[in-house]
């Protein structure tokens, strides 16, 4: 008989008691702290590490439902109690691990990789977690739960992902955004997918306060990352990175940090691989924040004493968050993973994104923050030349075309682009074109 796998919610602070993942609960009833999904590792350990690797490799990007998804190919580690007919999947995961050879060479590094999470259905890493959350909601509703809608606060990417997955499942979705603080490409995604879009005259932290009241008072289900079902999907990011390296662990992972759910998720993936003996060592994890919204960086500089701050406007709008919900989980992860936090100015993040683009990428501004952290650490000698480094690219640069155009047209406030490459306007004249081509070839 096959071993039965099981997962429950438990308080991150250690309060006693298990809570069913099949009920709408987001905080510990005793201390009001966040919950985390806990798996029966002893049951999972009945299968050997080699057998798990083989199972995950055999499923990877196959057509058998639902294993075409790299998230659901690891179903036993994510949500073992879900029934396949309730899974809402859009082939998430399995994104390119891009060898940034040219960029690494410019920085004096031999082994730099960029995990292209933006190559996903809605264009960001949020799909990894949203497939799990919406699938659980669908099963809850199928089994009779009265859920009126799913709702989130968002700086853009979460709302796009929630709207798409909810639309596919036939579940009403409500997204609350800070007015005029998301790109048109991000705003139109939930609109197109039929979500109720509410644009508030506040920042993300204000939107988050409103959505939490809706969850308490109006019978809607919370889809933000303080709901740790999202983390279960996002933790497959680190598992997939190791899988794509033929089950070898990189030395360093750099990730942009806003609401900080992804930090704990990445750590959770490595924790699970270590507990089940798929890996024997941990990487170092570094979080990169925009200088305009850097509460975790400030805490790091103060021996992890955290205080929320008013986040100032930044080109990296999705991480413009001054009071991140998942800060305690993130700090715990960084403490255990020899972690560090770096920051980037607007100039640094814009130039770093442009420099990476010159090496074949098309980076969003949030990835630019992580790339700037990579550059600063390399310049200080904090990264050895042969260290294997993975930069997590959280979203598609196509969502941020205005940022790209503004950089090359020299229209970004506070940025003097050092790598601007505007088009050259010429008459319809062959000799003028030939002279321009000769200048390029000469360079």
Helices and strands, with pairings:
Layout: E1 7-11, E2 35-39, H1 41-44, H2 49-59, H3 75-78, E3 97-99, H4 101-107, E4 111-116, H5 126-142, E5 150-153, H6 157-169, E6 173-178, H7 184-192, E7 196-200, H8 204-217, E8 221-222, H9 229-234, H10 236-244, E9 252-256, H11 261-275, E10 284-290, H12 295-301, H13 327-336, E11 340-344, H14 346-357, H15 365-380, E12 388-393, H16 401-408, H17 430-442
Parallel strand pairs: 4-12, 5-6, 5-8, 6-7, 9-10, 9-12, 10-11
Antiparallel strand pairs: 1-2, 3-4
Task: Please tell me about this protein's structure.
The strands form three sheets. The protein has a six-stranded mixed β-sheet, with helices on both faces. 51% of the residues are buried. The model has no long low-confidence stretch (mean pLDDT 95). Helix content is 40%, strand content 13%. It is globular, with a radius of gyration of 22 Å. Helix 10 (236-244) packs across helix 11. The N and C termini lie far apart (68 Å). Strand 9, helix 11 and strand 10 form a beta-alpha-beta unit. The protein has a domain at 97-121 and 230-408: 3-Layer(aba) Sandwich (Rossmann fold). The protein is of the alpha/beta class.
CATH class of the domain at 97-121 and 230-408: Alpha Beta
Distance between the termini: 68 Å
- SSE class: alpha/beta
Mean pLDDT: 95
Low-confidence residue ranges: none
Number of strands: 12
